[in-house]
Specification:
The chain has 174 residues and is mainly alpha-helical. The chain has one domain: Fumarate Reductase Cytochrome B subunit (Up-down Bundle). It is 67% helix and 2% strand. The chain contains four helices and two strands. Helix 1 packs antiparallel against helix 2, helix 2 runs antiparallel to helix 3 and helix 3 packs antiparallel against helix 4. The mean pLDDT is 93.
């Protein structure tokens, strides 16, 4: 397996499609009304869950792609930046996976039968379970905020490399 110095087209496509879908997710989630106990999933929630399961599939494929098409850390970076960069990238994979799975699990524990973009029914990950629901909701929210924090740090580091260090690190993903 050859280690590359730059991300290929497929890796870049995974990255930017997931970025766009996450932006949609946060917008939908932010503007959705609070979920009440007897509430059925509406258009917003169905789209939110559909996009979330799409992100889940894409992050699994992206993870597999990354394992089979490794990219070497930028050699011009100091060791602490290479280690931090790798750690944040792997944390992003894990937290995106946890966030999307916990959201789907939340919908399943509510007993919601969701069809992916109103077309294909999604399998239930658990049976309706009110006692599990509150805990899953807490985990989902914690993952959402953790993911937002990681994304913010990732963007900040990219901007610092682009505007302050001017070291070309951004070209690897553009």
């Amino acid at each position: 397996m050859k280690t590359r110095l730059r991300y290929g087209t497929t890796a870049k496509l995974f990255h930017w499609v997931i970025v766009a879908l996450l932006a949609c997710q946060y917008a939908i989630g932010w503007f959705m009304p609070d979920i009440k106990s007897d509430m059925a999933p509406g258009i917003g929630m169905t789209c939110h869950i559909s996009i979330g399961t799409t992100i889940l599939a894409l992050i699994v494929f992206r993870f597999a792609w990354r394992l089979t098409h490794p990219v070497a850390p930028e050699s011009s970076l100091p060791a602490y930046q290479r280690v931090t960069s790798e750690a944040v990238h792997w944390l992003l994979y894990v937290v995106i996976l946890a966030t999307t799975l916990s959201g789907w699990l939340f919908a399943s524990a509510r007993g919601w039968k969701i069809a992916w973009f109103f077309m294909t029914p999604l399998p239930m990950l658990t049976t309706e379970n009110p006692s599990l629901l509150h805990e899953i909701d807490g985990w989902h929210q914690a993952f959402e905020w953790t993911l937002l924090f990681l994304i913010g740090g990732h963007i900040l580091a990219a901007v610092v490399h682009l505007l302050y260090y001017r070291d070309g690190v951004m070209r690897r993903m553009l």
